[in-house]
Amino acid sequence: MSPRADAVRNRTKILDAAREQITLHGPDAGMDEIAAAAGVAVGTLYRHFPNKTDLVSAVLTEHLDRVADDIEAARERTAGGAKAMDEILGLVERVLEASATDHAVKAAARLLGAYPTDELVEDRTGTALAELIQAAQADGELHDDVTVQDFYLLINTAPTDQPPAVRSRWLTLVLPGLTTRGR
Amino acid sequence: MSPRADAVRNRTKILDAAREQITLHGPDAGMDEIAAAAGVAVGTLYRHFPNKTDLVSAVLTEHLDRVADDIEAARERTAGGAKAMDEILGLVERVLEASATDHAVKAAARLLGAYPTDELVEDRTGTALAELIQAAQADGELHDDVTVQDFYLLINTAPTDQPPAVRSRWLTLVLPGLTTRGR
DNA sequence: GCCTATCATGAACCTGCGTTCACGATCTTG
DNA sequence: CAAGATCGTGAACGCAGGTTCATGATAGGC
Fold first, then answer.
1. Is A82 helix (H, G, I), strand (E, B) or coil?
2. B18, B47, B81, B98: which is deepest, by most CB within 10 A?
3. What pLDDT is recorded for position B112?
4. Residue A182 lies in a domain
């Protein structure tokens, strides 16, 4: 039997509100706040998601999906003639920038490189990133031993809660370990 | 009027226990656990420290003090003829290693570069580190624009909760941003 | 040895937060 | 439209962790 119409409506409202609240306050956003933002009672959250972890995972997976889209787009541009290293630098800057204001992205980044991730999404990002890396290495602009995991590691250790000047400085310090382009 | 003898005794026991518990479980160690480890009731903690923040700060300041000692010792060795860059690398590795097992060090590292720190200790580390940096730059082994803040920044973003292989890889990725020594 | 200021005790309190559940409302099928 | 399954409600629960306070013990000067 298909679900009731209002139930579907509520599920959407809940996901929208959860996305908004987690973006603003990170995964620490309270279930009460999410429920209030969705215009729904707490119990309704628990009808759609057994517990908080499941709700947060759903939102974070969405975000990872967007990042995967971004990476795949960069790969397409490379196939179209763009320099792979330029695309990689753009990606890193974009993710770093997003993490600063979007607490969901920050939390989502922590999922990559750790275990509990949707395998499909992880595969998508991994594959596209690997191709970009190979291309940049073929251009001689990325050190030969750099891997996908290295990027996950660096993104996870990025100082996302620091002012722009500090984030920029951090990039400057870290990039020489990846690229062969001079400082 | 000087404090009672048993009060002094208890203060020591509390600090010892707090140090131990925070080393094991980080600043998340409960007041109850600390009290139990000290063989004292919770209320006694609050007689000596108005709140948890004050107690944790006291312990963390101690740790920073030890780090300051380490840095100053490195500076002395440099004055005695050791290569400044070697001492710096040793320092970084030691702090990184300690952060992995000692949750107090990890938390203490977060204090440097942030605001609420004992100025005296911060001055001590800052001065000694600055001298080491200058010496290494004079040797041409450290990039000229590297500052004390850069080191604080990198230490703060180190992946202390990752396995040794990952921590080591992180160092490899980050060092080229500091030193002129090749990979 | 007494007496009082100082100190220790730990049960109780408070707040925040995830989670549950008995009840009422609403949608949908026949 | 009626019947029943599905869904929504929100007060209440449980738990954890920091903090307090009335009560009793102890130290140290006279």
1. coil
2. B18
3. 63
4. no
Whether B110 is covered by a domain: the verdict is yes
Token duo for residue A130: 């690997």
Contact list, B177 vs chain A (CB under 8 Å) = 172-177
CA–C1' gap, B169 and C30, in angstroms: 67
Partner-chain contact A173 B174, CB within 8 Å: yes
- Do A103 and A165 sit in the same domain of this protein? yes
Q: What percent of chain A has pLDDT over 90?
A: 85
Q: Specify the residue for token string 């620091």.
A: A162
Same domain, B80 and B126: yes
Taking CA atoms, what residue in A is nearest to B160?
A157
- Tokens 């908080």 sit at which residue? A52
**Alpha-carbon distance A164 to nearest alpha carbon in chain B (angstroms):** 13
Residue whose C-alpha is closest to residue A174's, from A133, A139, A146:
A146
Is residue B79 packed enough to be buried (19+ CB in 10 Å), middle (13-18) or exposed (0-12)? exposed
Q: Is any atom of strand C within 7 angstroms of residue A30's beta carbon?
A: yes
CB-based contact, B92 to chain A, within 8 Å: no
How high is the pLDDT of residue A117?
A: 54
Say which CATH number the domain at B171 has. 1.10.357
- Is the CB atom of residue A53 positioned under 7 angstroms from any atom of strand C? yes
Residues B122, B169, single domain; the answer is yes
Interface size, chain A vs chain B, as Cβ–Cβ contacts under 8 Å: 46
pLDDT band at B182 (very low <50, low <70, confident <90, very high): confident
A47 touches chain B (CB under 8 A): no
pLDDT digits (tens, 9 = 90+) for A103-118: 988 888 877 654 345 6
Structural domain boundaries, residue A24: 1-49
Same domain, B63 and B149: yes
CATH code, domain with B39: 1.10.10.60
